[in-house]
Amino acid sequence: NVLMPRLIAGHHSDDRMGVELLELVGLGNRLQHRPGELSGGEQQRVALARALVISPDILLLDEPLSNLDAKLRIQMRQELREIHRKTNVTTIYVTHDQEEALAMADRIAIMNKGQILQIGSPDEIYYRPANSFVAGFIGEANMISGQVIEKSLDSKVEIQTPIGKLLVQSPDFPLSLNTSVTCCIRPEYVQVKDTQSTSIPNQFNATILDYQFKGDSMELVLQIGPATLRAIQHNPRNHKMERNQIVSLSVSPQDILLLKD
Fold first, then answer.
1. Which of 9, 92, 96, 142 is spaced 20 to 30 A from 114 at the CA atom?
2. CA 184, CA 32: separation in Å to the nearest integer?
3. CA-CA distance, 145 to 158, in Å (whole number)?
4. Taking the model in full, what pTM does it have?
5. Is pLDDT at 3 greater than 80 in this prediction?
6. Tens digit of pLDDT for each residue in 177-187?
7. What angle do CA 73, 108, 62 make, to 5 degrees?
8. What is the pLDDT of residues 154-195, one digit of tens each?
9. Element (H, E) at 210
């Protein structure tokens, strides 16, 4: 069978509805093509049109892009957001792809073992995770255990960790001395330079164990004492790194998130 509007609208619906939905999902010029002549992304759009034809109050998309290649996934994300904007249908989007969740959602629910751990906007989930599981699940995160050893008057606390002392912005929950905490540091907040500066806090010497060039960024694996940290450096053309190179690592106090153990 060719991809006629009736395939979308059903035997008891107006063909015009099928045409409108196919145009909405970007297949208005593919009406006479057979299913086997459609690409993976186009087949996904057909499935979406068939789900929308009944004018649902809620649309459930369960891993809708899981079988597409990386470039097509990004394209389909944009198209799904545009379709959602046009139809205004409440959509529950199930995915294990953290980047996809951040890119697609107005609100995210993080679940573990059947329990909802946190619900919030993408930026709330990313920048203010409720616990270590949420922080590690959404985006990459360096987790360093420590203990509060000093509370200063300028809204900062000092944490003793396996890599040394970290000066951290005070969290929005009360902390007592000797409290056990977890320091969460996103890789993009780790600054890597050839030499240290005396005016910057939280500086450590580190050894580059490995690196991956990704075009728009470079991901570094760094050894600091007993700990291994990941760092992401943008515009890698300006960063000449080699394995076993000794570098200076620093993290601003406001870029370290404290989580209760």
1. 142
2. 54
3. 13
4. 0.77
5. no
6. 999 999 999 99
7. 45
8. 789 999 999 999 999 988 888 889 999 999 999 999 999 887
9. strand 203-213
**Strand, coil or helix: what is 182?**
strand
Measured distance CA(141)–CA(149) in Å, rounded? 23
Q: Are 65 and 99 a contacting pair, CB within 8 Å?
A: no
Q: Where are the alpha helices (DSSP H) in 37-146?
A: 40-52, 70-87, 98-104, 122-127, 132-137
Residue of 66, 18, 65, 68 whose CA lies nearest to 39? 68
Segment 202-217 shows an average pLDDT of 91
Cα–Cα distance, 200 to 251 (Å, whole number): 9
Q: Quick one: average pLDDT of 89-111? A: 91
Cβ 188 vs Cβ 197: under 8 Å: no
Residue type, 4: M
DSSP string, 5-29: HHHHH-TTS-HHHHHHHHHHTT-TT
Task: Indicate the burial class of 220 (C-beta count within 10 angstroms; 0-12, 13-18, 19 or more).
Answer: buried
